[in-house]
Amino acid sequence: MIEIKNLGLQLAQKDIFSDLNIDIKRGEKLGIVGGEGAGKSSLLDIISGRLIQTAGEVKVSGEVLTVTGNISADFSELRMAEMSAIDKLKRTLRGLNDNEIILLLDEPTKNLDSYGVEWLIKFLRDRPNLTTVIVSNDRYFLKSTCQKIIRLGNSQAPKINLHCAPADNSIALEVDELVKVYSGETVFKNVGFTIRQGQKVALVGRNEIGRSKLLKTLLSAWENHNSQGGAVHGTIKFADGLKLAYMPRVYSSATAKLELDKIQNSGANFLLLDAPTACLDLPMIEEFERALVEFTGTIIFSEDDRAFLQAVANRIIDITPNGTVDRISTYEDFLANETVNQQISEKYHHIP
Predict the structure, then answer these.
(1) Distance in angstroms (rounded) separating the CA atoms of residues 311 and 145
(2) Minimal CA–CA distance to 17: which of 155, 156, 149?
(3) Best CA proximity match to 317, nearest among 210, 183, 187, 170
(4) Which residues have CB under 8 Å from 340's CB, separation 6+?
């Protein structure tokens, strides 16, 4: 289906890759990983014919369809702006002829929550004849869908060091009965938990707005020395002796790296991180993951990267619109627990 021989690419007098050889047969799923500038998306562009290589040859047998994580096509039945990321993806992939199409996916899970990722995994698994080339930083997704994975480039991320002073108290944070309203809508309510020093707490689930707003509410309470942080009800109490640092959700790799530098230089022993891997390439994700695993302070973070969650978190909280589902466990154990799944279903389907 795809034969790549001695492929080379040079852009702006810089060698992106050279002597690349890949053979993809009908139905195979190939994953491509690498650091920023390694040529991952450029390789997809060469396969699709949108970019001409500097050296080597590419033979493609079939019709190529490229789908990115930022789908912007317009459908007459419904404006794309009114559709969720997973609905856009489902609409784009509808009706494919598996025996003729070569599907190129460029960061397809970028805007998907865990439920959307699972849908895409099932979609690809159910189509053994659909040839697919996937560029992604999502290791769980690639491992779940691809027969083989290749890494472009030899880039290594700069080392991340997170040093912090030990905290004095066993309890770092107490939250009780928080209710948050945003743009006239209640984004979460009945949120309460006690966080102990050293816990690494992942906020997960479909309520992405609620997760992000909870982090900002905690930050506001810390910065303004008040007990509510802009919530309409409830209390927030941080322990004495804490030094807090916050990484906001960002939308470019350059900004993400600046925020990481701030955290490294903060000396904080309590981190609030909102989607920290969203704009990092895989080498940076792996290095940040290592640093957080070794970090001796306390972390609360919102994230959808399943491999990252599994490696870092030792406590999982699903921030539903109607309260929390809270368990001290790894992320995989949280997902597999029947009681947890029942509680989550009840809270998301609860009608006040």
Answers:
(1) 20
(2) 155
(3) 210
(4) 318, 325, 327, 334
Please give the Cα distance from 241 to 224 (Å, whole number): 16
Query: Minimal CA–CA distance to 105: which of 92, 114, 95, 118?
Result: 92
pTM above 0.90, yes or no: no
Give the strand pairing for 323-327 and 315-320: antiparallel
Give whole-number Cα distances, 316 to 63, 219, 304, in Å.
43, 19, 12
Q: Which residues have C-beta within 8 Å of that of residue 256, sequence separation ≥ 6?
A: 250, 276, 278, 279, 280, 284
| CA dist., res. 302 & res. 160, Å (int) | 20
**Would you give the distance in Å from CA 302 to the centre of its chain?**
9
Instruction: Identify the segments of the chain with pLDDT beneath 70.
Output: 70-82, 350-352
What strand order describes the sheet that includes 200-204? 244-247, 270-274, 298-302, 200-204, 315-320, 323-327
d(CA 152, CA 3) in angstroms, rounded, equals: 17
Q: Which candidate, 95, 97, 78, 96, places its Cα nearest to that of 87?
A: 78
Q: 99-156, pLDDT tens digit by residue?
A: 999 999 999 998 888 889 999 999 999 999 999 999 999 999 999 999 999 999 877 7
Distance of CA 50 to the CA centre of its chain: 28
